[in-house]
Structure formats: C-alpha cells, structure tokens
Amino acid sequence: MFCLKPGEILTPLHKRPARPTGMPFLDDNEYGVWLDPAPKSLREVPETFATCTLYCNTIQNNLLTEYYEFFNSKSNEIVAMIFHEKDKEDDSVHFWLPKKNGKFEEGSLFFNLFYLREDGNAARFLVVGVDEEDDGFWVCLKTTATNRRVFVGDNEDLKERVYKFIHLGYIGDFVSEYKALKRLSKYEGGNNVINSIVNPKLLLKGGWKPLSQDWEDTVKKRECNCPNDSQCQAVRDLTYAVEKIQGPPGTGKSTTIFHVISTRLPNNEIAFVTCTRNVAVAAIVEKVSVAVNGELLAFGSRLEPIAKRFTVEKRYEALPCVSTATKMLEEWNGELSGCKKDEGKMKPCIECKENWSKYEKKREEYEKKEKKKEKEEAPTPPVRKCKKCRIEATDLWRLMYRYCVARAAAVQLSETLSKQKPILMRGIFSRARVFVASVASCGKVLREYKNYMEQDLRVHTVIVDECGCVKESSTALLANLYPQSFLLVGDHKQIEPFSLLQKETLLGTNHNRSLLERCIDASNKYHFLSEQYRMHPRIAGYVSDAFYGNRLTTPASVQLARGNVSSTDALRLINCKDEEETHPGKSTMNKKQADLTIKKACEVMRKYRPPKGNVAILTFYAAQVRELKMRVAADAELAGRVEVFTVDKCQGIEFEHVLLSTVRCNREKRVGFLKNKARVNVACSRARSTLTVVGCRKTLARGGVVWRKLLSACSN
C-alpha cells in the first residue's frame, strides 16, 4: 500500500505539466552569438550562388544582422522579480514570477532573453533549461560567462529583494534557423532540391509521382475540391525538383495543394506542409486530411478548432487506452478530493495526524521486514477517541485508508501512462503521412519527431504555402529534410517577408526578397493560377489589371453569388479632403477620415446586415488603427461586429465587406508607403462583395499607377 509521508495528509494528486521536448541545444561557444552579438552588415543576396556553403554563409550573416537589430531594440515588458538566496554555495536564487494570463509557464520560458539589473550591475540572461519541482520549476539562466540556476514558484511572501527583469523577447526562431543554416553549410551534394535552391537556374528533375492518363477527367467529376483548368495544369506539369506556383488572392491555393498531395505524392511517402498563418494551416488540414485518410499531424500555437483535432496531443488523448486511463485517473482524483472534503468536516487535530503518520511509518517498516521474512509483531492503528477533537480513531483510519488506496492507484496509473507515452507517441508519428505546421513551429516538429522516433525526419515532398512572405532563412530547416520534391506556393506580388531593418539598410541587398521571388526571377519558370473565387467581378477586374497583367478571370458561379451587389456599390471611393496629422516619432492619423469611415461602416451594416466578423476596416497606419478601434468600440451598432486591422496584418484573410481608410491627405501630396504596390494589392483584394475606399482623391492620384487605376475603377 502507498504510504503517507508526514505532513502529506490529503493532498490531491495534480497532473504536472510535461517538460517541453526537443528544444534546440547550443554549443558552449555559441552563447556569445546570442548574448553578446557583434554588429554586422547585410550582404547582397544574388539570384544564384556558386556553392551551398556560400549560400548558407550569406543567409546566416543576414540573419545575425536582423538579430543584432532585435537585440538592441527597446524592451517590450518589465517584469518585477522577487528574490531571496536559496543556496549560496551554487549561486542559485529563489524568486517569485508574477504571471500575466499564464504567460510565463515553464514551457514558454525556453529561449526567452531577459535583461537584469542587479546591485548596480547589468547582465543579459538566456533561459536554456527547465526542471520540474513540486511547487514550481528550476530555470537555468545562461550568460556568456556563467550559469545561474533559479527556482520559480508562486510564493508571494518572498519579499527580501526586488529586481527588474526586462523581457527582450523570444529568440528560439533565430536559434533554430541559425542551427539549420550551420548544418546545411556542411552539405556534400547529391540532392536536387538543395542544388536547385542554391542555383534556381538549374532545372533538375524532381521526384513527383506520374499521373494516370485519365486523371484530369476523374478529378473533375468530384463534387468537392474539384480543380479548375489552371489548377489542373499546375498539378499536371510538376516536373522539377523545385517548383513554383503563383496563386493570386482567392485562386484556390489550398485546393491545389490538396491535389498535389493526393495525386503527385508517391505511395507511403511523407509530405511536410508549412504556412505562415494558422488560418492557412486550418484550410490545408481541412482538405488534405481527406486525401490521406486522416493520417496527418498539425502543429502550431493558437490553431483553429478544425486543426486542433489533428495535433499530437489530441491524437494521443484520443487513443482508447489513454482516454480510458485518463477517465480512471479523474475518478481517483475525485476520490482524493472527496477525502479532503471529509477531512475538512472532521477537522482532526495535529496530534491525530501525527499519530497516524507514526503508525504509517511503523507499518511500512513492518512490511519491509515481512518481505525479508523477519518475524515482528504487526503495528496496530490507534483505536481511542481523541480527547481534543473528539474524533473516533476508527473513523479517521477509514478516511486515511480510502485516501491511501486512491493515491496509490492514481500514482500507479500516472507512472504507467508516463512509461507508455513514448511508445504510443512513436506509433502516432510513424503513422503520419503529412505534417502540417506554421513556419514558426517547424523547428518544434523536427525536434519532437527526433525525440520520440530517435532519428531525423526525412520526407519526400516539402510544400511551403504563402511562400511570398516567408523569409529565406526559414527554408533552411526544410532543406535539411533532404526532400526529393520542393513546392513553393504563394504570391510574390503581395507583402514581402518582414524585416526589422530600416528601408535604407535594405536597399540593393534583396534581403527581404522571398525564396519564391528569387527562384521565379532566376528561372522565369512558374505556374499561374488564373481563376479567382473571392472577389466581386468589379473588384477582381481592378486587381487583375493593376497587379497581374489582366490574367485573372472570374467564373460564372462567383458572378452569380455576388449578384446581390451592384457594380456601383462593389467598388467606390469616398473623397475626404481633411488633412492628416503627423506627430514626431509617431504614426500618421486622420481623425476626420476615421469619423467618415465609421459613418460609412454603419451604412454598410444597415444595408447588407452581414453576420458578425464579415465587415473589416483596414488602414495602413497603426495610429489610425487605434483611432478606428476606439470609435468602433464606442458605436453600439459596430462594437463586437466590425474588426479593425492594419493592411500588413490581414494578408491571408478575407471579409464580405471592407472599408479602406487611406489616411494620407496633405498639401505636398505625399503618400508615404502607400506607394508600395504589394500593400495596395493586399488592401484591395480582401473583400468578397464590397470595397469602400475612403481617402483624398488628389493625394492618391500622386501615389503611382496602381492608385490612378483604382481611382479610375471606383464609383464616386
């Protein structure tokens, strides 16, 4: 029988969080890279490279240049830490960490960078290790010179010394990409995909599965996920090791990926699909899971409900043996909680608890001697009524017996689950044919796979969705999978990869050019999806003319579906002549234009009565977003029903009705980064039915060809 320890009376068994698996490990000589980075200058990224080593060195240098900018940027959060010395011999300290919505838990602390001021000294720390304890967890903080081991708990009484920790941010993505490039630099040749990434002009053969002769006729008979002609042609013509598919807004990229996996992935081979946004992950999972009979795993934070069903954790919990054991564990924990309530009603005194603990200790010693066949008289439990608390010893004995039995069963069940989990997880990973992950989660997928399977993941096909906004350093992780086929799907005519560096620094370096754009520029060979299913024909006509050389078409089904909206209402301009406000060091805003935008949003709500979340207000400036959000929250008709975004945040999302606040209006007719064609493309291609542009006609006319075409296409 499980034996109680002194002072452990009726403590329910809590399920402790598992230690995060497979975090990237750093060599001792690499900590200086992250804790004491040296300034670097961007190198130009050419279309082709002579060797893989040169490619990796260039991309790695530019990655560290980005990191240096991040490292020296302003802190984004100050966290008060309360310390007291735990053990002077090993220089460890005990501190209480205030949590904000559970933000700093043991798993989320890994590879977070902190800046600490202590006794007049300053140092930067990187979290590189976490170990569990009963009432908290130990954290290993690394500096360039020393380690410091600290204990994180929830004891608010520790108020001896107070320091300020400045949270500089999570650097795990930088570390993963750096390690991947370092590993790829040792590539010795023989892989057509890697050779084609290094030099996209090399049109090397890929490992695509051949199609049957009647494939196109068969797939066009499908009731769902039926491909159009341009999608069929793209899937049919996949030949080379690195293929490119340009998919303008609403052209069915996820449907195309579904058909690539269902028809061009060889039998029993593995595909790895990655996207920048969790919305795209959900769209891929929804369609591709059908193609592989559910043999799919999804990874990412804050996934959509449909994608969460395919996470490793959900798959593990759904196993019959695990779900049964979990229910039994809940029952035993319920019994423990019941014992605790009964103890609260009894209110035994300290003397009763001590007597019971002494009895348990004697009984444990007796059982050990009995196993050794040593003769000794068995101890007897207390039988008298306590004079202090007036509790019968037999009643307390029954309660303690119930508790011991329940705790023993719960502990045994938990230990069995812990021992069996690696075996069960290996089964889940080995059955998966498709891995779908956000770009930020790719490193985690590879590390978890290696942790459970005890070998590196090797895949046949890699597909990068939304590749037009994925920075090139992120693809090194995928190249290390040594695939036979590599498919880039996206649109380089939309917003480019994000960079922390100033625009002046980026000029002439091509650092913020995506791998998709570099490969298209170098080879001039790619597939184009030409049928769009999102936008009203009037909106699509402008987008096609301004950004895609009039190559986009709108099928009759979309024209019919948008038939309740007239061409005049579908795309219109509301002229606003009120001037903008610009504050030094801050973003630009236009309060009068914000008022007009809110007024027009109310008109849209009254006219079309769209469901919640189908109307969005977009703008190019963060200050205008704040102004619009305040006005939306204060308007009873719009609050909770209309969303407000910057244009950069809404790529990959669509809405039934969109209002675009352009902000700029000044005497000099300056438009700022409204000249960026990619941003204008994203802003104008989010709407399904109506796009209302609120702005100054005279100022926008100076914004370049795309704005003049928009003004010409709009109804006043």
3D architecture notes:
This protein has 716 residues and is of the alpha/beta class. The protein has 25 helices and 21 strands. The strands form 4 sheets. Strands 1-2-6-5-4-3-7 form a 7-stranded mixed beta barrel. A 7-stranded parallel sheet has the order 10-11-9-12-13-8-14, with helices on both faces. A 5-stranded parallel sheet has the order 15-21-20-18-19. Helix 6 packs across helix 7, helix 7 runs parallel beside helix 8 and helix 11 packs antiparallel against helix 13. It is globular and about 100 Å long.
List the helices and strands and how they pair.
Blueprint: H1 31-35, H2 52-71, E1 77-87, E2 92-96, E3 112-118, E4 121-133, E5 136-142, E6 147-153, E7 161-170, H3 172-184, H4 192-198, H5 215-219, H6 229-236, E8 242-246, H7 253-264, E9 271-275, H8 278-291, E10 296-299, H9 305-308, H10 312-318, H11 320-346, H12 350-371, H13 393-431, E11 434-438, H14 442-453, E12 461-464, H15 475-479, E13 485-490, H16 503-506, H17 515-523, E14 527-528, H18 537-547, H19 556-561, H20 567-570, E15 571-575, E16 581-582, E17 588-589, H21 591-608, E18 615-619, H22 622-634, E19 642-646, E20 655-661, H23 677-684, E21 687-695, H24 697-700, H25 705-713
Parallel strand pairs: 2-6, 8-13, 8-14, 9-11, 9-12, 10-11, 12-13, 15-21, 18-19, 18-20, 20-21
Antiparallel strand pairs: 1-2, 1-7, 3-4, 3-7, 4-5, 5-6, 16-17
